[in-house]
Specification:
The chain has four helices and eight strands. It has helices spanning 2-51, 66-75, 149-152, 186-208, and strands at residues 57-60, 81-90, 96-108, 111-120, 126-135, 158-161, 167-169, 178-180.
């Protein structure tokens, strides 16, 4: 009988501890969820402004279906890539200047490479304003060189005209829609290129249907 009473006593204590721990974890989540969401929103807003400094405001394109668009990317050979969201970039007068696209490729050496791409649209073709990394966990001194100006700045005011996509080269760029690969880091270069091409495909899809 004593053993049964002791077991019941231990069980009750364990249940109480579990309940208290659950309440504490829930409270911590409630306290931290707000600041985390605010920080993520601030990071996103900063990235949008970085890649489209001429825009006065950004509004998400609500009817863009990321899941449905994945089949379009597969058809174009832009595999392992997801367009997470598309935002219209508007001027101070409310006119549409272009788009900012949140795009991810899963083939980075250290994992997923997520970036924002600013794209100005016009009758003469698309211009990539720039890119801003939201997630980049490549090898230090190697793939992380994607953050270095000599690579990243290649996307600043990159006028690709009607090319519709970009490519990378290891032998020196010879076309407006080419970038020089990071030396020794083809995997990272490929991931960035696919993420950018996913963004360009999304803009073409929205503009041309």
């Amino acid at each position: 009988m004593k053993k049964q009473t002791s077991a019941l006593h231990d069980t009750i204590i364990l249940v109480i501890i579990t309940l208290v721990a659950g309440v504490i974890l829930g409270a911590v989540h409630d306290v931290t969820a707000g600041p985390i969401a605010e920080q993520e929103a601030a990071t996103q807003a900063a990235a949008q402004k970085e890649v489209f400094p001429d825009a006065d405001s950004f509004s998400e394109v609500k009817d863009f279906d990321s899941d449905a668009f994945s089949s379009v990317l597969e058809q174009q050979g832009i595999d392992q890539t997801t367009v997470n969201a598309v935002y219209e970039a508007d001027g101070s007068d409310g006119s549409k200047l272009g788009y900012v696209v949140d795009s991810t490729n899963n083939e980075g050496y250290g994992g997923a490479v997520e970036l924002m791409v600013g794209i100005t649209t016009g009758d003469s073709g698309d211009v990539i304003n720039g890119i801003s990394f939201l997630s980049l966990e490549e090898t230090a001194g190697m793939g992380m060189k994607a953050e270095n100006p000599d690579f990243k700045d290649q996307f600043t005011n990159m006028d690709i005209g009607d090319a519709g996509s970009i490519s990378y080269t290891k032998s020196g760029k010879s076309a407006a829609n080419e970038i020089d690969a990071i030396s020794g880091c083809t995997i990272t270069t490929n991931a960035v290129t696919k993420a950018v091409n996913g963004a360009l495909a999304a803009v073409t899809y929205l503009e041309e249907g």
